[in-house]
Design a protein that fits this description.
The protein is α/β, with parallel strands linked by helices. It has two domains: about 10-150 and about 300-380, Rossmann fold (3-Layer(aba) Sandwich); about 155-285, Response regulator (Rossmann fold), CATH 3.40.50.2300. The protein is built from 14 helices and 13 strands. It has a five-stranded parallel sheet, with helices on both faces. Strand 3, helix 4 and strand 4 (about 125-130) form a beta-alpha-beta unit. The radius of gyration is 22 Å and the shape is globular. It starts with a helix and ends with a strand. It holds the Pfam family Peripla_BP_6. Belongs to the leucine-binding protein family.
């Protein structure tokens, strides 16, 4: 009996030691709160993207009002970085070293997220569900603390799917590509070239880049149109550039097959400014449900619409940015629930790398979050969408990303 008591005592002490050790690596966490850090472009040329941050914050507020996660309220400290990588770095240091957040979540954009990745990985601070579809984020060997949550398969997969679709329509198609001059845009271009293989030099009529800060992309579109290419591929994360490209191509009468970057498949910020006629028939790739103003049997879409009316009445619910922000909020809550009471940074990252068939209400049918310690791509599959002049509609079966 005495040996049993000794064994139980030792086991209890070991459990306490393990818990204490976990808490030692759980900054930003108390018995009632977990603090997370975020940066968003609330100002600057990409400020339209801040709707995503507003939706995440509003979703977490709703969760807190319902009791939080495992008894803890989630405090998201969100700072403006103007979509400027140096500002992202400055804000992230403040969040980690000053505010003492548990982790950084949902940083907007490839370039801002890239600017802070080394700092966060060196300091073993999870960089969770950053907002980018660049393939570079699937690198658990070299960036074990960084994971993206894209709104569609990564840029290379997106490009390959679109090239395959265009060549099925026209095997001899020539491609014109407008792309953002950053890591994300270059990633998309690699996908185009990989998909075209040895035909790339002949099949790409012209590829033209632009800077996020450029006031217009009209000159690039005019140059691309002069090639008389059969396919026009537009890659950007900034709604302004996407809308300008569609409008200018329409104005000059250029009517190729058009593909729009998945991040720009947005009626409120892209298609409406471009003009209905300019956008009709445009194709894109997506993993999120297209917005439906009057859903009949889709309780999830109805819940999203009610959420927007109640919490963000000043924003258009038919905005992929808010649909996506709502989804990121759901994903963060699912992850924190999976962590249980061990909210150490080690366990947060461990659980992020072990998500199995996690459903989110606004993902298209058959798509769930799945990760492993050797595969940091939560979303790999998508559907082709077409803008019909009023809304985006699904026009394909589920397509597998590679």
């Amino acid at each position: 009996m005495r040996s049993l008591r000794l064994w139980l005592g030792a086991a209890f002490a070991a459990a306490l030691a393990t818990a204490a050790q976990a808490q030692q690596n759980a900054p930003g966490v108390t018995a009632t709160e977990i603090k997370i850090g975020n940066t968003m472009p609330y100002s600057g040329p990409a400020s339209a993207l801040s709707s995503t941050g507003k939706a995440i914050a509003a979703y977490l507020d709703q969760v807190n009002e319902q009791g939080g996660v495992n008894g803890r309220k989630i405090t998201m400290i969100s700072l403006d970085d103007g979509f400027s990588p140096p500002k992202t770095m400055e804000a992230t240091r403040r969040l980690v070293e000053g505010d003492g957040v548990a982790f950084i979540a949902a940083t907007m954009g490839t370039a801002p997220s890239s600017a802070i990745a080394k700092y966060l990985n060196t300091n073993k601070v999870p960089q969770i569900f950053l907002i980018s579809s660049a393939s570079k984020w699937n690198d658990p060997a070299n960036m074990p603390w960084s994971m993206a949550l894209p709104w569609a398969p990564n840029y290379m997969s997106e490009a390959k799917i679109e090239v395959a679709y265009a060549r099925a329509k026209n095997p001899n198609a020539r491609f014109a590509v407008l792309y953002q001059n950053d890591d994300a845009g270059k990633d998309f271009m690699r996908g185009v070239k990989d998909a075209l293989g040895p035909d790339a030099d002949k099949a790409i009529a012209l590829a033209s880049s632009f800077e996020v800060s450029d006031p217009t992309v009209d000159s690039q579109v005019l140059t691309l149109a002069n090639t008389k290419a059969d396919v026009f591929m537009i890659y950007s994360v900034t709604p302004r550039a996407c809308a300008q490209a569609l409008r200018k191509a329409h104005e000059i009468g250029w009517r190729p097959i058009r593909f729009l970057a998945s991040g720009c498949a947005n009626k409120a910020t892209v298609m409406d400014p471009a003009g209905v006629d300019a956008g009709k028939g445009v194709l894109s790739l997506g993993s999120l449900k297209p917005y439906v103003a009057e859903p009949k049997d889709d309780k999830a879409m109805s819940a999203y619409i009610a959420f927007m009316k109640a919490r963000l009445p000043g924003l258009d619910p038919n905005n992929i940015g808010t649909v996506y922000g709502y989804t990121v909020g759901e994903a963060l809550v699912a992850l924190l629930k999976q962590c249980g009471n061990d909210l150490s940074r080690d366990n947060i990252m461990r659980q992020a790398a072990n998500m199995k068939n996690v459903p989110l209400s606004l993902l298209l049918p058959g798509i769930t979050l799945n990760t492993s310690p050797t595969d940091f791509r939560p979303i790999k599959d998508g559907y082709l969408l077409e803008f019909n002049g009023n809304d985006w509609v699904v026009v394909s079966e589920m397509l597998r990303g590679t």
